[in-house]
Amino acid sequence: MKRMFVIFALAGSLVACNNTADTSGEAKDSIDSAATERKEMIDSSAEQRKDIIDSTAEQKKDAIDRADSVKK
User: What is the pTM of this model?
Assistant: First the structure.
């Protein structure tokens, strides 16, 4: 058990020593990429919904046109 604790302590210290001094730049890049990804997802969703609405409107317009042609 003591060996496992020593191994984990050693691994933890190696990981902690690997920190870079410029973490703010990495954090900003991470936030920017997350924001860009979120914007693209929203744009994609909006485009899909617009396509569905346009399709539904076109179907309704065709149905009205058919109904008008039957009445004549």
Answer: 0.47
* CB-based contacts of 20, cutoff 8 Å, min separation 6: 26
Mean pLDDT of the chain: 81
Domain limits at 47?
2-71
Domains in the chain: how many in total? 1
The phi and psi torsions of 22 (rounded to 5 degrees) equal -105, 70
What pLDDT does 47 receive?
A: 92
27-60 in b/e form (b: 16+ CB < 10 A) is eeeeeeeeeeeeeeeeeeeeeeeeeeeeeeeeee
Best-predicted range by mean pLDDT among 23-27, 32-36, 51-55, 65-69?
Answer: 51-55
